[in-house]
Design goal:
By secondary structure, this protein is an alpha+beta fold. The chain has 14 helices and 13 strands. Strands 1, 6, 7, 8, 9, 10, 11, 12 and 13 form a nine-stranded mixed β-sheet that branches. Strands 2-3 form a two-stranded antiparallel sheet. Strand 6, helix 3 and strand 7 form a beta-alpha-beta unit. Helix 2 runs parallel beside helix 3. The relative contact order is 0.15.
Length: 502
C-alpha cells in the first residue's frame, strides 16, 4: 500500500472508548500532528498547481504596498541535441509537470482529506476545536524546508479550516520553518556529523547482512535487468540504492498507469522483501542505540514534550510565543488566545518511523504509506487541583510575559529539564496528565508505559505525562548541535543493548 487508505470516522461506540473512557473527566490537548508526502519520478503530469502559482511582489519602491503575482510554471530540460526543450508528460502535457519531490495532485487530495477528517473528529465529534476561527494563533503550524512538507501542512490546515470556517478578517496564519542546518523535524543526516556516521554504519551493517542473501537473489531475478549498465546487481548500497527503488515503486503505485514501472516491480513477495530490508537499514538504529535516537530524532521529541509540559504548567512553552502576536508583540494571540490547542507539522516518512521506533512502538510495522500521521494527544484528569489546570481565560500568562511586551525568549521553567532534575513542586504539575499516540488513527502502546503506575488504570495506551517525559528525556539532547559533533571517534554500535521505549 503506497498511499494510506484511511479508515472511516470513529463510530459513537469507538469514540466513547477512545475519548470518554474516564467518565467525561478528561480534557485533551492534541499536541502534535505529523503528515508526510514524498514523491520521486520525472516528467510526471500530476501537478495542476503549476498552472496557478502566486508570489508576493512589491508594487511601490517605498515598501508601502504589496500584491500577488499569479503565474504558471513550465519545466525546461535538454533535448537530444542539447538544445532546451520543454519537459512533457507521457501524453505531451507541459503545464502540469512536477518537480522532483513535489507534492502531486494526489498528495494534495489526500492531505486535504486528512484535514477534513481532523475537523470531523476534533470539531464536529468532540467539540474540542472551534467551528469558526478569526485567527490561527491557537494552532502551531510548522514545516520542514522541503516544499512538499509546507504544501502538506497548508492543505491539511485548509481541510480542517476551509474558507467557510474562517472569518472575513482572518489574518495570515503563522507557519514556522527553519534553515536546513537547524532542522530537527526530520533526521538531519546532512547537518549532523555524528548522526551521519551512525546512519552509515547501520546501513553498512544492513548491506553486509542482506546483499548476498537469498532474498536479494530473488529481487535480482525480478528487476536486475532494469538496473543501469555496469551496476546491474540490486543491493542495499547499489546505484540506485534499494531504498531508492522502494521510493520509486511506492510513488508510482500511488499514481496513475501512465507512469507505472514494469509489472515485476510490484511483485508482492519482492515488495515485502524491499520493505523489510528498508526498515532495517533506516530505523534499526533507533531501536538499538540511545545515541542514534538522541542525534536522529531526540530534539524533535524533546520539542513535543516541551510543548506538552508547557501546557501542563501554564508557562507558555506550548508554542504560543512562536506563532502568536503582531510584529514582535509576542506572547498573546491576535484574538486573545493564551495557549496553543493544536499543532500541525508537515514532515516526512522518516520522521514518523524514527519517532515511533525511538519510543519502542514500531515493531512489526511496514514503511509508512503516504499521508501517514501521528497524533500525540495530551489529556487531563479534571479532578486535579485548579492550580495545575490549563488557563482558559483571555488574560496573557504573566509567568512568561514578564514586564516586557516584546519579550522574545521563554523563561526556562521545566522546559527540557530532565525528569530527575525537577523539584517536587514542579513534578506535581505533571500529575493528572496522560499522553496517547495514535498512528494512522490506531492507538499504540509504548513499552515503558505498560509498567505499573505508568499508565491510566485499565488502558496502557494512556501513558502518564511524567512517564512519557522520563522515556523521552533519555534521548533528548541538551544541545543538539553539540551532540552532533561529540563522540566522532567512538564506535557506532553500543557495547550493550539499549532498547527503545523505556
Amino acid at each position: 500500500m503506497a498511499t494510506l487508505v484511511p479508515r472511516g470516522p470513529y463510530s459513537d461506540e469507538e469514540l466513547r472508548k477512545l475519548y470518554y473512557g474516564m467518565a467525561n473527566e478528561v480534557r485533551f490537548l492534541p499536541g502534535f500532528r505529523m503528515l508526510d508526502l514524498l514523491l520521486v519520478g520525472t516528467n510526471w503530469p500530476y501537478c495542476n498547481a503549476a498552472k496557478r502559482f502566486s508570489s508576493v511582489v512589491m508594487t511601490k519602491t517605498d515598501w508601502s504596498t504589496w500584491n500577488e503575482l499569479q503565474w504558471r510554471r513550465r519545466m525546461e530540460t535538454f533535448g537530444d541535441d542539447d538544445r532546451p526543450v520543454l519537459a512533457a508528460g507521457p501524453e505531451g502535457a507541459v503545464d502540469t509537470v512536477c518537480q522532483l519531490g513535489e507534492l502531486t495532485d494526489k498528495g494534495r487530495e489526500t492531505t486535504l482529506a486528512l484535514g477534513e477528517r481532523l475537523r470531523y473528529l476534533y470539531v464536529d465529534q468532540l467539540g474540542f476545536m472551534p467551528k469558526i476561527i478569526s485567527d490561527a494563533d491557537m494552532i502551531y503550524l510548522r514545516a520542514t524546508p522541503m516544499p512538499r512538507a509546507l504544501d502538506s501542512v497548508q492543505q491539511s490546515f485548509v481541510g480542517m479550516y476551509p474558507s467557510s470556517a474562517r472569518t472575513a478578517s482572518f489574518p495570515p496564519p503563522t507557519i514556522i520553518t527553519r534553515a536546513a542546518a537547524d532542522e530537527t523535524l526530520f533526521p538531519n543526516e546532512r547537518n549532523c556529523r555524528r548522526f551521519s556516521q551512525l546512519s552509515r554504519a547501520f546501513a553498512q551493517r544492513t548491506a553486509d547482512r542482506w546483499n548476498d542473501s537469498k532474498d536479494m537473489d530473488y529481487l535480482n531475478s525480478l528487476i536486475s535487468k532494469w538496473m543501469p549498465v555496469g551496476a546491474q546487481r540490486v543491493a542495499v548500497d547499489s546505484h540506485p540504492r534499494l531504498s531508492g527503488i522502494m521510493d520509486t515503486v511506492n510513488s508510482t503505485l500511488a499514481h496513475g498507469p501512465k507512469t507505472r514501472l514494469p509489472s515485476v516491480f510490484y511483485d508482492t513477495k519482492g515488495r515485502e522483501i524491499i520493505d523489510k530490508i528498508g526498515i532495517e537499514e533506516w530505523f534499526s538504529g533507533y531501536k538499538e542505540s540511545e545515541e542514534y535516537r538522541k542525534v536522529g530524532i531526540g530534539a524533535l521529541v524533546g520539542d513535543i514534550v516541551t510543548r506538552m509540559v508547557g501546557s501542563a504548567e501554564g508557562s507558555g512553552n506550548d508554542g504560543l510565543l512562536e506563532v502568536a502576536g503582531v510584529d514582535g508583540d509576542l506572547g498573546k494571540g491576535r484574538g486573545g488566545e493564551s495557549g496553543v490547542k493544536l499543532a500541525l507539522s508537515g514532515c516526512h516518512d522518516t520522521t514518523l518511523a524514527a519517532t515511533l521506533s525511538s519510543l519502542g512502538a514500531f515493531d512489526g510495522e511496514k514503511w509508512p504509506p503516504y499521508t501517514s500521521h501521528i497524533a500525540v494527544e495530551l489529556f487531563r484528569d479534571e479532578s486535579i487541583k485548579d492550580e495545575t489546570a490549563i488557563p482558559t481565560g483571555p488574560a496573557p500568562r504573566q509567568s512568561f510575559l514578564g514586564s516586557s511586551r516584546k519579550k522574545t525568549r521563554l523563561s526556562t521553567f521545566m522546559m527540557r529539564k530532565p525528569i530527575e532534575d525537577l523539584a517536587a513542586e514542579e513534578k506535581v504539575k505533571l500529575q493528572g496528565y496522560f499522553v496517547r499516540l495514535r498512528y494512522n488513527d490506531r492507538p499504540i502502546t509504548i513499552p515503558g508505559c505498560k509498567l505499573p503506575g505508568k499508565h491510566l488504570q485499565g488502558d496502557e495506551t494512556f501513558c502518564t505525562l511524567e512517564a512519557f517525559k522520563a522515556i523521552a528525556d533519555k534521548f533528548t539532547p541538551r544541545i543538539w548541535t553539540a551532540a552532533c559533533v561529540e563522540g566522532l571517534d567512538n564506535p557506532a554500535f553500543p557495547s550493550s543493548p539499549e532498547p527503545a521505549g523505556y
